[in-house]
Design goal:
This protein is α/β, with parallel strands linked by helices and 336 residues long. It is built from 13 helices and five strands. Helix content is 66%, strand content 7%.
Length: 336
């Protein structure tokens, strides 16, 4: 009973500001379950089949969707797939009967976030929803914190970036003149321009305007990213001083290589700071709470590398690294 009480309180805390859509064709089940959900969530909308659920999703914003599988017009699998094609980050929990277990592989491929088996037990319901809603609430808090931080310091940051940007261009221009490096007119214009820094710079323009070819750096970071993933996996498998120190070293080496790209010194500094923190605390019980955050950080770091350095399709080269930095800050606050 203590577990149920714990998950009940956790779900109340996490769900208080979240909006939920519940899709179920059985009117009696839909009404009673929606009434239960209303005790935990900010708002609860309902739909009687997948087609109506999809329509409500298109017209509203939901933090979480809970759906049955067998429904008329459009079943839960078809609806989940259609929703994920529109917004792959949408959180979805599927309710399934035991004889529908053959559908689970399809749902895993679609990318649903959790399953509830009928008949639903209270502890199972509360535990699954508390876990997922906790992740949703953490992500929202991180996003709100990041937006607040950017809003509060945007003016100061812009002035500092302008100063650093101008200094970097002057240093680069001096280096070019001293070493007789051949550059084209567009690169020369970039170095001698006194224009202000824009808040967005796409990866294509970043590479076109840079006098440095980051192909080697990209390959190094790719391999270092694999090493980092391995260190995180070893740390999660067996937490001790040795695996913690190995993880710290992997972060430091990645940050050291990232120092070669002036535009991402903030990210390099954040990684190095996390490395130093891990090296200082080594293994403590607080590290048990950061497993998923470390894995998410590593995935986001790889997405940043591919989008900015490899595929060069990032619309804003700093949008992704700010997300990684925010994730690192959350990890640091958990273990410091």
């Amino acid at each position: 009973m203590q577990d149920i009480k714990f998950f009940t309180e956790a779900l109340k805390e996490y769900g208080a500001n979240l909006n939920l859509l519940y899709v179920e064709d059985d009117e009696l089940v839909r009404t009673s379950t929606a009434k239960l959900f209303s005790k935990f969530f900010n708002s609860v909308d309902t739909a009687e089949d997948g087609l109506l659920g999809l329509e409500k999703f298109k017209n509203n914003k939901y933090d979480l969707i809970v759906t049955d599988i067998n429904m008329p017009n459009m079943n839960g699998i078809e609806m989940s797939q259609a929703i994920k094609e529109i917004e792959f980050r949408q959180n979805i929990v599927v309710i399934s009967a035991h004889n529908e277990s053959n559908f689970l592989l399809s749902l895993i491929d679609i990318g649903v976030d959790g399953f509830l088996l009928k008949p639903i037990k209270s502890e199972q319901l509360l535990k699954t929803l508390a876990r997922i809603c906790g992740n949703i609430a953490d992500n929202k808090m991180m996003q709100e914190y990041q937006e607040k931080m950017e809003s509060s310091f945007s003016e100061v940051q812009q002035k500092l970036e302008q100063k650093l940007y101008s200094e970097n261009k002057n240093m680069a221009l001096a280096e070019v003149m001293a070493s007789n490096i051949e550059i084209d007119d567009q690169q020369l214009k970039f170095l001698t321009s006194a224009s202000e820094v824009t808040s967005e710079l796409c990866a294509t323009d970043f590479h076109a305007n840079s006098i440095t070819d980051y192909a080697n750096t990209n390959e190094c970071l790719k391999e270092l990213g694999k090493n980092l993933n391995s260190s995180i996996a070893n740390f999660i498998k067996e937490k001790n001083d040795s695996t913690t120190q190995d993880l710290s070293q992997s972060l430091f080496i990645y940050a050291e290589e990232l120092d070669n790209i002036a535009e991402f010194l903030n990210l390099a500094f954040a990684l190095e700071k996390l490395s130093n923190t891990l090296n200082r605390v080594l293994f403590t019980q607080s590290l048990n709470s950061v497993e998923s955050a470390l894995e998410s950080m590593s995935k986001e770091l790889e997405i940043w590398r591919k989008s900015v350095l490899e595929d060069r399709d990032a619309k804003n080269i700093h949008e992704l690294d700010r997300s990684v930095i925010a994730r690192i800050m959350i990890i640091e606050s958990s273990i410091s």
